[in-house]
Fold this protein.
Amino acid sequence: MNTWWTSLTPTMQILWGITLTATLVFIIQSILTFMGLGDTGADTDFDVPDDVGADIAHDGTGLDADPGMNLLTFRNFVNFFLGFGWSAILLRDSISSNALLYLIAGLVGIALVAAVMWMFKWLYGMQQSGNIDLNKSAVGCQGQTYLTIPGERSGTGKVQITIQGAVREYEAVTDGDAIKTGTPIKVTEVINNTILLVEELQSGII
């Protein structure tokens, strides 16, 4: 092992080091995910004020998007270097140009990130929708605001409601005044499969 390592050029030692590290982290993440422990807490979440968060979500910048669409995460960095590293190592004897080799490896890394993001987006959608018919199940359900809802349908916020014994999160709009985070709400209409029309509960009791 030591002989093999010392026979490598400094560039290949760095490449092997990055690749093996990314592979190990990927394996650990995968095991913890299948055990139901999620992303090991390594993905960075940024807390922003509720009103700012609502504006960001409404503007479509993606900070409040589902997990699969958050590009700058530790998991995506690991996936990129996993695809990049192994591609560069496996193709180094077939491609004489280092520039072309690293370009192809970079494209493979990006493709792997995109594939994993798509998979998580699909799983997130399945988790959110399940087998629930929102038009039949959501209207009349109560819950509370998770992310401030702008007034007069000027933007979307988020709510958490209980449907069929499970707490689920959806985007929401309101016809009235803005509804702040933590305010009890009631669903009055289903706009589409992901957006609900809600109103504030006056009693304050869910």
Remarks:
- Residues 22 and 82 are 5 Å apart (CA to CA).
- The chain is about 45% helix and 15% strand.
